[in-house]
Here is the input.
Amino acid sequence: MGPMNHTLHDDFILTGLSSHPKIKLAFFIMFSFVYMTTLTGNSVLIVLTRVFQELNSPMYTFLFNLSLLDISFSSVTVPKMLVGFLVERNYISFRGCFTQLYFFHFLGSAECFLLSIMGYDRYVAICHPLRYVQIMSKKTCIKFASGCWITGFLYSLVHTFFTAGLSFCGAREVNHFLCDMPPLLKLSCTDTKVNVIVILSLGGLAAGASFLLTLVSYIFIMSAILQIKSTKGRQKTFSTCASHLTVVLIFYGTIIFMYLRPQSSYSLEHDKILSVFYNVITPMLNPLIYSLRNKDVQSAVRKFFKKSQMA
Here is the structure.
């Protein structure tokens, strides 16, 4: 692939979610609200976990990292998507497109790995409560969290390298609101068999291993819960991991459906809708379903606002 100049003709065009003006305006208002809620909710969680000592446990260390990932993950794509609702044609440069592709998969895969580690954390808390502090030490948590970021960095590097090596001819309309691999493969005028193999093998290995770790963790968790004699005890124990399980099912479900199916069954229109769920909606929901039902976080929020009023 030869060097490419920054001219309008070398740019890609993101078609977005709709071309209808009224629908685009409605989407702009709705997703602006969602994005601001995402930034606010996750920023509050980041501040709380840094300020209050009672939120200094391993679980909140992971939630701190999850909030950082959610803010970054949404910010890679949502602002550009919002611009697309206000302009007739949403151009993105070649370099901008592949920068977005890289960070999209870097942050998305890091979150995927982090969710599996959080599942392991819940397993240790429920199945080995007396050894929880020892097993999930601060040093161990930092290693786990760092491993998620580093693995995501390397994982995305491979995908971006192979996708950027393709040649793109003719129309450059990316049938999506972001630069992602499936719509870019559709635009390529070169053979994409190697790319498909890389997506299925590397993506399957990463998502499969993460999902397997989460699944095994929950098998042991459910086994431990069923051994609790009282119904109230079972409900209380399950409530500590119900939120995580919900997000895992949404996050992994959409990713597996999008990337780990035969190329012939791809539907870019359906993929765009699925992308909205895990790239736009889930980052907004995470601080709510993980934290706002948590008594420690609720207590920290009250203390935070009391300090703000006294200042």
About this structure: Strands lie at 12-14, 90-92, 173-174. Residues 180 and 288 are 28 Å apart (CA to CA).
